[in-house]
């Protein structure tokens, strides 16, 4: 079927790369042109020769994360963007050069642990079952202690605090009218960057409660640092995340403590794997013979926080579930209905109570994963709220906040949406582990479309960089192939490992059974008071039509 000219110019892929050439200017010293220039390449680098100038080494152009945040040329980050920080090298350098006062803290996301657990299941059958996440966390912690870290934990306690703040913000918006409805979850930096750069009119709808990563940063700098006797500036905090965009989130000027970043470095799941393998990590033994890169390693500190706290709802944090549970507590007789819009990546949920012969909707929300679904969501929110898009086109009119029993459910606007940029959610983040090389080709043969029903196309014709090397080396240390090379089946395995025996899904039984912990958080709350919210900044486009790469 032939597409119109407008459609052929549109990128229908969920994974949006930079759509324009980078606009960052490159500064170079002025000199008189000589008319002739030659470039010489040797093992030491690239040099400009010839003419009256001396042989001059050409510096490699670098783009920092702050440059990306200030630029309006890209929609979201991509692996191929050159970044000078937030890498394994930065962590290794910090460990090797740190003074004795610096304390190193690492927090690992449960999605990363699930991805590693599945990847470390050997395909030869000697380890058919995935490693339990608590066992894997303990073994990774011991390896990181040996490398030079002082404290290691996971992000689920920080997530519990972030979700509590998220629910509190929703209550404030609904009961006091402060803030726009529907409230859109803001824990996904890919979605936040998309909104800031292309849909700034929707920023008032985005939740300002901080993400689990940034709450973990507050805990590391203020609570763990205090336990270790360190000031926030003397704590080096590393997080392990399933997503490259988390590196950009950590670089936001808003996420600092008086100029000190809450998170100093973000490693993806694959980068943690590479770091551990550089130091002889063995996931199948508790005894780690790891080579330390730190001259003196102090005794590690066991964190007082609970680990691997379950959060029902979704493997992307469970934000919608938490908000629905809060509403359900006010209406314990309410029933849940769900409806898939396009796929499980875009599903609506409603809570309704029966009043005589009529049914009243008390809450309507949705989960929306993947940029293709996200664009549909943006249009729906604009239509329901009447906000104008950046192009000047208004919605079709402000929707009525219908709650009458006779109204169709479709006429009821959203109250809350859990938004994630990645198809399949956080377990399918761009920084996650990919199948072993021996399973890579099989996965592509079984699924021509990586996440077919959400529009993420796999490029079967062109192997991803590193695929040839991975095919030759099926060891755990083989290079990872990045975004391409995954499959629906692989993501399902990671999702299953994430949940293990815990409750998943959104249903009436899950709401009734859910009982948030009753920990004494007074000490933590005292440290984090007034620091649990962030701000967003719409970026004005500086589009130059001549810069568009068709």
Automatic annotation (TrEMBL):
Signal peptide residues on this chain, from the entry's feature table: none
Annotated Iron hydrogenase large subunit C-terminal domain residues: 130-430
Superkingdom of the source species: Eukaryota
Matching Gene3D superfamilies: 3.30.70.20, 3.40.50.1780, Fe-only Hydrogenase (Larger Subunit), Chain L, domain 3
Pfam families per UniProt: Fe_hyd_lg_C (PF02906)
Any GO molecular function: metal ion binding
Key words of the record: 4Fe-4S, Iron, Iron-sulfur, Metal-binding
Keyword Acyltransferase found: no
UniProt keyword 4Fe-4S present: yes
Family: Belongs to the NARF family.
PANTHER family: NITRATE, FORMATE, IRON DEHYDROGENASE
Entry function: Component of the cytosolic Fe/S protein assembly machinery. Required for maturation of extramitochondrial Fe/S proteins. May play a role in the transfer of pre-assembled Fe/S clusters to target apoproteins.
Protein's recorded name: Cytosolic Fe-S cluster assembly factor NAR1
Protein species of origin: Malassezia cuniculi
Gene: NAR1
């Amino acid at each position: 079927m032939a597409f119109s000219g407008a459609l052929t110019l549109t990128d229908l892929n969920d994974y949006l790369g930079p759509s324009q050439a980078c606009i960052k200017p490159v500064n170079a010293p002025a000199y008189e042109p000589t008319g002739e220039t030659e470039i010489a390449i040797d093992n030491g680098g690239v040099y400009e020769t010839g003419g009256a100038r001396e042989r001059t080494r050409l510096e490699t152009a670098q783009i920092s994360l702050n440059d990306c945040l200030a630029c309006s040329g890209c929609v979201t980050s991509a692996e191929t963007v050159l970044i000078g920080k937030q890498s394994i090298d930065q962590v290794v350098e910090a460990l090797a050069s740190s003074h004795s006062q610096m304390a190193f803290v690492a927090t690992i996301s449960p999605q990363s642990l699930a991805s590693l657990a599945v990847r470390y299941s050997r395909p030869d059958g000697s380890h058919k079952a995935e490693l339990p996440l608590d066992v894997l966390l303990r073994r990774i912690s011991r390896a990181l202690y040996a490398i030079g870290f002082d404290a290691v934990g996971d992000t689920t306690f920080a997530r519990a605090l972030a979700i509590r703040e998220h629910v509190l913000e929703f209550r404030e918006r609904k009961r006091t009218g402060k803030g726009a409805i529907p409230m859109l979850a803001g824990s996904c930096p890919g979605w936040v960057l998309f909104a800031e750069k292309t849909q700034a009119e929707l920023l008032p709808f985005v939740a300002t409660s901080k993400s689990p990563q940034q709450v973990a940063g507050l805990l590391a700098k203020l609570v763990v640092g205090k336990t270790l006797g360190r000031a926030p500036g003397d704590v080096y905090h590393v997080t392990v995340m399933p997503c490259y965009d988390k590196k950009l989130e950590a670089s936001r000027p808003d996420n600092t403590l008086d100029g000190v970043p809450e998170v100093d470095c973000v490693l993806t799941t694959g980068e943690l794997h590479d770091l551990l393998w550089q130091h002889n990590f063995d996931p199948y033994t508790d005894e780690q013979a790891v080579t330390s890169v730190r001259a003196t390693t102090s005794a590690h500190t066991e964190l007082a926080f609970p680990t691997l706290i379950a959060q029902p709802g979704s493997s992307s944090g469970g934000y919608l579930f938490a908000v629905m549970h809060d509403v359900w507590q006010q209406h314990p007789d309410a029933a849940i209905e769900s409806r898939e819009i396009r796929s499980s990546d875009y599903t609506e949920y409603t809570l309704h109570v029966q009043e005589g012969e009529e049914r009243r909707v008390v809450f309507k929300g949705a989960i929306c994963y993947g940029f293709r679904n996200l664009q549909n969501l943006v249009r729906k929110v604009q239509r329901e709220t009447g906000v104008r898009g950046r192009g000047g086109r208004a919605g079709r009119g402000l929707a009525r906040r219908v709650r009458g029993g006779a109204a169709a459910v479709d006429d009821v606007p959203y109250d809350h949406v859990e938004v994630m940029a990645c198809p399949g959610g956080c377990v399918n983040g761009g920084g996650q582990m990919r199948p072993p090389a021996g399973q890579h080709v099989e996965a592509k043969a079984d699924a021509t479309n990586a996440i077919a029903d959400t529009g993420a196309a796999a490029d079967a014709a062109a192997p991803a960089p590193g695929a040839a090397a991975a095919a030759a080396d099926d060891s755990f240390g083989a290079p990872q192939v990045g975004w391409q090379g995954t499959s629906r089946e692989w993501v399902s395995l990671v999702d299953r490992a994430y949940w293990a025996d815990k409750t998943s899904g959104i249903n009436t039984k899950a709401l009734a059974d859910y009982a948030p912990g009753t920990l004494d958080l007074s000490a933590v709350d005292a440290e984090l008071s007034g620091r649990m919210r962030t701000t967003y900044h719409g970026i004005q486009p500086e589009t130059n039509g001549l810069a568009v790469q068709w």
